[in-house]
Amino acid sequence: MRGADVMQRVCSTTGQVCGTIIWESKRVKNWSDGWIEKLKEDQREAKADIAVLVSTVLPRGITGIHQQNGVWIADYTLAIGLATALRHGLMEIAAAKTSMEGRSEKLEMLYDYLSGPQFRQQIEAIVDAFVSMSKDLDQERRAMEKIWAKREKQIEKVVKNTSRMYGSLQGIVGSTLPELKTLELKALNSVEDR
Questions:
Q1: Are 48 and 103 found together in one domain?
Q2: Residue 92: CA count within 13 A, CB half-sphere
Q3: Percent of the residues in the chain that have a pLDDT greater than 90, as a whole number
Q4: Measured between alpha carbons, how far is 65 from 168 in angstroms, rounded to an integer?
Q5: Which of 122, 165, 182, 191 sits a CA distance of 20 to 30 A from 42?
Q6: Please, what is the average pLDDT of the chain?
Q7: Are residues 60 and 100 in the same domain?
Q8: What is the Cα–Cα distance from 94 to 100, expressed in whole angstroms?
Q9: Pick from 91, 84, 72, 88: which is nearest to 25 by CA?
């Protein structure tokens, strides 16, 4: 395939091809409007249903995801969420086409819906929810790592203090104090870890 970076064929659970998404990726410092027309040409040539441009830089005044001249534009952080939403949309269209064969009027209504603002807003809402869940997961991971690090320090203190107390008792009582092999091993390990 010439042109775009990736051609994604979306298939249903039964293996039926539901549609195709053509992807272009740009890791650049400056935006170029020419990319959109070029991607639309690639889309026509490849007969793809949807065109997506993922870039490190977006058009001036645009953040997150946006649809411009029939091309979806997104930054890298939203690419997976957008892919999931668009894939789901193509699968829904295919299911509707199958159930509406011979009903061109409903198909036109469906096309109008998919090319209208309501569908775009729903796609954006799905992507926003994906981003929010991803951020929450990262925050939870960092919080748990902090808790685990604190707990490790607390356990270290308990082992050190227990070893010191045992050492003091051994110094006072002498060899009559029973040996605690596990404590000695833990004490050795904590000393070696330093």
A1: yes
A2: 12
A3: 32
A4: 66
A5: 122
A6: 84
A7: yes
A8: 10
A9: 72
Residues 157 and 93 in one domain: no
- pTM check: above 0.85: no
Handedness of CA 117, 120, 125, 131 (dihedral sign): negative
Position 142: which residue type?
R
Provide the residue type at 128 as one letter. Answer: D
| Ordered strands of the 17-26 beta sheet | 6-11, 17-26, 50-55, 71-74, 65-68
Q: Residue 172: which domain range?
A: 141-193
Within 8 A by CB and 6+ apart from 88, the residues are 126
Cα 188 to chain centroid distance, Å, stands at 43
Out of 115, 130, 160, pick the residue that ends a domain.
115
Q: Are residues 108 and 146 in the same domain?
A: no
| Nearest-angstrom CA–CA distance, 127 and 122 | 9
Identify whether residues 103 and 26 lie together within a single domain: yes
DSSP H/E element including 51: strand 50-55
Q: Can you read off the two tokens belonging to residue 148? A: 């685990």
Do 155 and 96 lie in one domain? The reply is: no
What backbone torsions phi and psi does residue 65 show, to the nearest 5 degrees? -125, 155
Res 23: pLDDT:
94
Which tokens hold the place of 173? 């009582």
